[in-house]
Amino acid sequence: MKLPETNPRLLDVHAGTARCRMLVMGVGGAGSNMVCRMAQTWRNGPPVLAVNTDTQALAACEGLRTLPIGAQTTRGLGTSGDTTGGRLAAEESLTALQEAMAGTDLLILVTGMGGGTGTGATPVIAKAARAMGATLLVFATLPFPFEGDRRRRQAEEGLRGLQRLADAVVCLPNERLLQGVDSQTGLEDAFRQSDAILATGIHHLWQLLSSTGIVNLTFADVRELAERSGGTLSYGFAEGSGPARSATALRALMESPLLENGRLLTEAKGILINITGGPDLTLADLEGIVGQITSMAKPNAHISMGALIDPARREHLTITVLTSEAWQEDRFEAAAKPAAEPVEIRKNAAPETQGELPLPDPAKDRGRFTTATATLINGEDLDIPTYIRRGVKLSSER
Amino acid sequence: MELPPFIALELGTTKVRALAGEARDDDHLMILGLGECASRGISKSEIIDFDAALSCARTALHLAEENAGVSIKQVHLLVKGGHIRTLVNRGSIPILNRGGEITRDDVEHVMDTARAVNLPGDQEILHSIGQHFYVDDQGGIINPEGMEGAKLAVDMLMIHGSRTRLRNVVKVVHSVPVDVQDVSFSGLCTALAVLGPEDKTQGALVLDLGGGATDYVAYAGGAIAAAGSISVGGDHVTNDLARGLQVTLPQAERLKEEFGSAVVDLAHRGDHVDLSGEGGAAARSRFVRLGDLQTITSLRQEETFTLIREELERQDILHHLGSGVFLTGGGAYLNKATVLAERVFNLPCQMGQPRDVSGLAVATDGPEYAAPIGMLRYAIRTARRTQRTSFIADWIKILLGQR
Asked: Cα separation of A49 and B201, whole Å?
């Protein structure tokens, strides 16, 4: 699986040559709209492709590379919310999609879950991308509560499927993206603002991976975080300007609804920090931000950071983070480990009186199957309760 | 010639069952008696304590002898478990006879060729089942005898499992002591019990939700298209509940039976289940929230169904199951299991009811006896087949699910 590690310095000889070939692909109506607006805000950026079954909607993405799919399945008219239609459309146009993705190291899929094309076609594209050896990060928005039950259910099902297919899925509920936006803002503006949050993060990631930052972050760091996340990442974004910009940005990050007001940051086991500032970015700024995040995070969290100078952004500072609540050991290592040891822990376990949340303890989670041979499917130990593996919180644990 | 009564023995994770039955006219089956005992020494459908499992088997067989009024010398043994896998192997031969007409010998020969598959040394073949024949390039042929062609091929579905684990189950029965006349994959027997010929032709999926494993068998176009077993069953649901609600395993079992559901009941998820008056570790709270309980059970059941759906999707079988999904086994009693299955597979779903069987009502009415009933049918068909002279033609018909 692992690609051979190339020395980034050797490739840097060709200034401006991308070391990591990245492609941003918007799938479905919501995804295409998002990448379309993203591309408009970037002066230069990663290659962008909009994929949709609805040719009319694609035509609205001016100046963007587009790929209509499912010409026969949907006749270019969209799927009217039917995921099967989306899936069939992607399968029909699989060759074209594969050509578009050829040679990509990092594929970023931007999609809205709940609709027909986004929910149906994305898994097909994800599967194909993985088969071609690309690392796959999916940014998926979830529908608003007012969009109805069917969409929500389709979205949840689609999301679960994607988590198995992609290296990592960053899930962005629409209402959280828009929480920072003034309620009186027009709809178009509201979406533009929420898209800008995502656009900045993806753009900075691209800049970091394609040029040399002052503190460098490599494709390997991103890939490791994605692969070890167990399928779910969270995305955080904050900006600050003026003299106290680093403190402002940091505070905004801690209060960001995207990170559940900082909870996801304190509980993260893997964090990727990206700081972009103007030429006036100081070492003290970096130290302050990374130090603060490190002190908040778990003591043994894996933190990697990159910093970048954008000459146009004097007196501005942007922090974007990707966090993972899990840090899995290599799947093969984990499977090879004997499961016998935990019996001891169980015997010596303290009585159930301590008033703390139980820590994840494989021996306890496996319960009556502690001594049984583990049932491992797709790298998951099925003897551990599903709700624990899915990270579902019960009311008694809250 | 009259056939003697047959005994099907199942060493399940929850129950050890012995079922005695005999053949009536046609394909009808009469259940004569039943012996049943709660399992010990068996986890995830595998023997973990030989002596405990042996004493269970003895008890169940003894009860069946008393109940049916027969003396048991030999049994037909059902096996299951996550170690059981399938593999499709295609065998092909040239037709060399005059005019290229395919004879019975050719059919026999090609099936033997397809059966000769190299499995790892620790694997034992349980069944080899013909799916479809190919004459030259024409596929989907049920019986090629008498047709003309230059090349004959057949797809054989091989069901195989770990030799040591299979032998350990057989060894328990030998130590009872009784003879093992035949060994059969439990999922296959379940399908034999609940599916009619039209279901097999239209395509159907049979799920056996056992205590330690979930078996699946899919028929498409009259032949078995896929089969397998996942080592996740009702015990996992109970274990999840015990862990999540911090109750004892027996309490969890009781809660599962009474309140568990494959789909969370949104209207009552805030309700509380009263645990006061019971012992156990639930010292902190005497109430369990119904929403939590059903979240745990539904997530687990949904995961198991989804794993099977994904497997069938991989093999591209899901679109060929016109008759839908049949649920059997004790796990089928979980509330709304059929509703969840309909949602996950996007197919009609029903409880699997054993067909053409009468006798003991407890055994014939519920979905949990489908596997041993199917085993008895399998035994009877095999015995009848050996009585007949036209051995091979019938054999093929039975293998292809024609009868």
From this structure: 45
Q: What secondary structure does DSSP assign to B232-258, as a single string?
A: --HHHHHHHHHHHHT--HHHHHHHHHH
Q: Which residue has the higher pLDDT, A148 or A3?
A: A148
Give the tens place of pLDDT for each residue, B272-294: 787 765 555 544 446 788 888 99
Helix (H) or strand (E) holding B47, with range, is strand B46-47
- Which pair of tokens denotes residue B333? 């009693």
The whole-angstrom distance between A136's CA and the closest CA on chain B is 20
Looking at residue B153, its amino acid is A
Which helix (H) or strand (E) is B46 found in, with range? strand B46-47
Cα–Cα distance between A87 and B106 in angstroms, integer?
43
Q: Rounded distance, CA A195 to CA B141, Å? A: 57
pLDDT in tens, A350-391: 333 333 334 445 556 777 777 677 777 777 888 888 888 887
**Residue of chain A with shortest Cα separation from B42:** A372
Sheet holding B74-79, edge to edge: B179-185, B74-79, B6-11, B15-23, B29-38, B357-359
SS in 3 state form for B126-193? Answer: EEEEEEEEEECCEEEECCCCCCECCEEEEEEEEEEEEHHHHHHHHHHHHCCCCEEEEEEEHHHHHHHH
Half-sphere exposure of B384 (CA within 13 A, CB side): 17
- Mutation pick from B49, B164, B237, B240 vs chain A, by most beta carbons of A within 10 Å, is B240
